[in-house]
Amino acid sequence: MTVAKPAQSNMDSFRPLRYTGKTLDASSLFFDSQRSPTVFSVDQLVVYPAQGVGKVERIESRDIGGATTDFFIVRILSNNVTLMVPVQNAQNVGLRPVCTEDQGRAIIESLKDRSDFTGYTGQNWNRRYREYSEKLKSGDLADVAYVLKELLLIGQNKELSFGERRLLEQATGLLTLELSLSLNQEQEEIKAAINELFADVIQPKIAE
Asked: Domain CarD-like/TRCF RNAP-interacting spans what residues (predicted)?
C-alpha cells in the first residue's frame, strides 16, 4: 500500500471547465479551491494525478509518530494499486472528484480544436517529454487531453518513438476512463469517438 505524496505540480485544486455547447472557452478555466472538497465519502470515485480514477474503499485512522492520522484508502481502477491519502493532505496531493458531465463534454470539444497545435518542429524530445510528463501528473484532465491531442497530431508527421507511444497510451487511458464515467459511456465508446475525431491522422497509418 502506497502513501500518497504531494504532486510535483503543486496543484491545489482541479480546474473546472464550463461547457459552452460549441467550443472550450479558455476564459472558463479557473482555480476554485472551494469546489474541490477534501472530504470524500466511501465508495466515491475520485481521481489521483497520473494514476487516474480510483475508488475510496474506506477511511482508516493510523497512529503515526504518536499522532492519529486519517487516510482515504483509494484503489486505482486501472491497475488495482492501493493508495493511502492523508485526509488533511488530500487537496495538496491533487485528489479530486471525477469531472462532471459538462466538464467531460468540454474536454471532447477541446479535442476538436487544433488551433493551438503549431506542428512538429523537431524540438528537443527531452524538453517535450518533461512538459508532457508534468501535464499528465498535474491531475488536470484538460492537460491530459492536450498531451493526447499533441501526440496524435505529431504522429501524423513522424513515427512516434517508444517514449512518445508510452505517453500516448497513458494519456489515452487516463482520459478515456474518466470520460466514460462522467459521460456514462463505455470506455471503448470514448476511444472510438476520439479515433473518429482524429480519423484523418489515424486512418492513413492503418492503411499503410
From this structure: 39-152
Indicate if 68 and 117 belong to the same structural domain.
no
- Compute CA distances 74 → 80, 83, 94, 97, whole Å: 9, 5, 13, 12
Q: Are residues 109 and 183 in the same domain?
A: yes
Specify whether 105 is located in the same domain as 201: yes
pLDDT tens-digit profile of 81-136? 999 999 999 999 999 999 999 999 999 999 999 988 876 666 677 888 899 999 99
Rounded to 10 deg, the angle between the 162-182 and 141-154 helix axes is 140
CB 96 within 8 A of CB 174: no
Residue appearing with cell numbers 472510438: 192
* pLDDT for the residue 205: 54
Cell numbers for 80, please give them: 488495482
Q: Domain residues for 14?
A: 2-97
Q: Where are the beta strands (DSSP E) in the chain?
A: 2-3, 45-48, 52-64, 67-76, 82-86, 96-97
φ and ψ of 153, to 5 deg: -75, -35
What is the C-alpha separation between 204 and 155, in angstroms, rounded? 11
**Reported pTM:** 0.78
